[in-house]
Amino acid sequence: MQASKQEQYIEFGIESEQYAIRIQDIHEIIKMQDITQIPNVMPYVKGVINLRGRIVPVISLRNLFRLHEKEHTKASRIVVVHHQDDTVGIIVDRVNKVTTFTDIQPPSERVGGPDGNYFTGIGLTDSSLVGILKLDTVLLHE
After folding, report:
1. What predicted TM-score, i.e. pTM, was given to this entire model?
2. By the 8 A CB rule, do 136 and 26 touch?
3. Cα separation, 131 vs 112, whole angstroms
């Protein structure tokens, strides 16, 4: 499938892997801040933050993807996304750049988490492959 030249993505990394989210789904990108934990939530829900008076839940993609947790660094960010009339923060190791893809391939049915397919496609760049996240699956993971 050919990607539209107009469609832009924010590319970010977790461990050595690269992922992307459509830029129109992103509200803002902020530095790490204190997260207030909430009891009795799924392990990948880290808690909530106060974003200028609005309470925003924050999830860890590391935990959701069953990677080991590690200390946040100066490069760690919270990508705040809009999803179904709600705002959610996603913790990532680093934000790389705004990018477009010349080609986006559909993901194999074998690609994705054990509980579902987390990707809408795989973006091809000159130097790497980038998994384009399907926010519905990632944010509504049970």
Report:
1. 0.86
2. no
3. 9
